[in-house]
Specification:
Layout lengths: L7 H24 L6 H8 L3 H9 L6 H11 L3 E3 L2 E3 L7 H5 L11 H6 L6 E8 L4 E7 L5
Antiparallel strand pairs: 1-2, 3-4
Helix pairs in contact: 2-3
């Protein structure tokens, strides 16, 4: 995942904006008699609490996905080199340019079970001990 180039001013702004976004979310929650904790924030941003703490402290740079989620959920605004960043600036080019592959075609389990025959099944005892037994099971499927 592409990360923004390390710029200490930008890192300080990111951590400040994340702290402000978290504070605003907590203020909104308190109006309803609730709390918006760092546990909630980490879950909303899909990061660990430790990662969130590093981001808030300005020790680590969050990925563009984390920043995008914070911008969408908390309404934070970031400025990089005099330019206000938008959610579109943080879109992952991998996600937007690459087609999603179709899932591989698989036979259903029921179709496979219906095709089993007694002559295609063998079980051998590999190893015995007083505590356990190891079996080798071989299931042969006939080609259709």
């Amino acid at each position: 995942m592409a990360r923004l180039a390390l710029n200490h001013e930008f890192l300080a702004e990111m951590s400040h904006q994340l702290r402000e976004g978290l504070r605003r979310q907590d203020e909104e929650a308190r109006k309803e008699g609730k709390r918006y904790t760092r546990v909630h924030a980490a879950a909303d941003l899909n990061v660990s609490r430790a990662s969130l703490q590093f981001y808030l402290a300005g020790a680590h740079t969050p990925s563009s996905d984390v920043l995008r989620r914070a911008m969408e959920l908390w309404g934070i605004e970031l400025t990089y080199r005099g330019r206000k960043l938008t959610v579109l600036d943080l879109e992952s080019p991998i996600r937007t340019n690459m087609p999603v592959p179709a899932p591989p075609l698989q036979l259903s389990l029921w179709d496979s079970i219906k095709g089993l025959h007694n002559d295609g099944l063998s079980v051998k005892v590999e190893k015995k001990s007083p505590q356990s037994i190891t079996l080798q099971v071989e299931i042969g499927f006939k080609a259709r």
